[in-house]
Design a protein that fits this description.
This protein is an alpha+beta fold. 15% of the residues lie in helices and 33% in strands. The chain has helices at residues 6-20, 38-46, 116-122, and strands at residues 59-61, 66-71, 74-79, 94-99, 102-105, 131-133, 143-150, 153-162, 165-175, 180-188, 194-196. The strands form three sheets. A five-stranded antiparallel beta sheet has the order 1-2-3-4-5, covered by helices on one side. A four-stranded antiparallel beta sheet has the order 7-8-9-10, with no helix packed on it. Strand 7 (143-150) and strand 8 form a beta hairpin. The protein is globular, with a radius of gyration of 18 Å.
């Protein structure tokens, strides 16, 4: 007999995929996922059941913490999900950025599961587009939440606590017609060491301060 709720679950899953597919038509390379042909997957599924109109506008998925902002040539994808499940990497809220159909800020993704690189680097915060804070040894993962969401602007907060020590990192991402604004603000209970990391795609890029 049919599994109750399976049809609805599959439709939700593929609507989610359609909404967060990259401008190149591929699945996002975040955490333990790989860049695959999402368009081919969606075409196959649509032969089984209609998915409706694919989202072309900005979208927030509150349950997963995934958000897509689109404006003009820019597509910004924010991963503000949890960090406690097995396949989730550190480094939240992570940011991927596309200009037209070309990637600008990318994620390190996932290597071979048998390679030590996956644990030694890919799963660490340093492999993502984040602010890395020097937290005390043994500090738990930060709690990440989407504070506000608009079609062209998102505010995400990361709070980390360990005893009397605490640090709050707030990232605001705004898409204008011809620029992307990223504002990072840190507040802590004591002086901290912090590093801002952006991983650029292998392409010719001109940066203006």
């Amino acid at each position: 007999s049919p599994i109750r709720g399976l049809d609805r679950s599959l439709r939700r899953q593929y609507r989610h995929l359609a909404a967060i597919t990259s401008p190149q038509g591929r699945s996002l390379q975040v955490s333990d996922s790989y860049s695959l042909d999402a368009v081919a997957d969606l075409r196959l599924v649509e032969q089984l059941f209609p998915l409706g109109r694919r989202a072309a506008s900005s979208t927030l998925f509150p349950d997963s913490g995934m958000a897509v902002l689109r404006r003009g040539p820019f597509t910004a994808i924010v991963d503000a999900g949890g960090q406690d499940l097995w396949h989730h990497h550190q480094g939240r809220p992570n940011l991927l950025l596309f200009v037209e159909d070309q990637p600008l800020l990318v994620d390190s993704g996932c290597g071979n599961y048998d390679a030590t690189l996956r644990v030694d680097y890919c799963k660490r915060a340093e492999a993502h587009n984040v602010v890395v804070v020097g937290a005390p040894a043994g500090a738990p993962h930060p709690t990440v939440s989407v504070e506000s969401f608009e079609p062209h602007r998102i505010v995400v907060k990361s709070v980390q606590r360990a005893g009397r020590w605490h640090c709050t990192w707030t990232r605001t991402i705004s898409l204008a017609r011809d620029e992307v604004l990223i504002n990072d603000r840190l507040s802590a209970s004591k002086q901290i060491e912090a590093r801002l990391l952006f991983h650029l795609a292998p392409m010719n890029v001109v940066l203006q301060a």
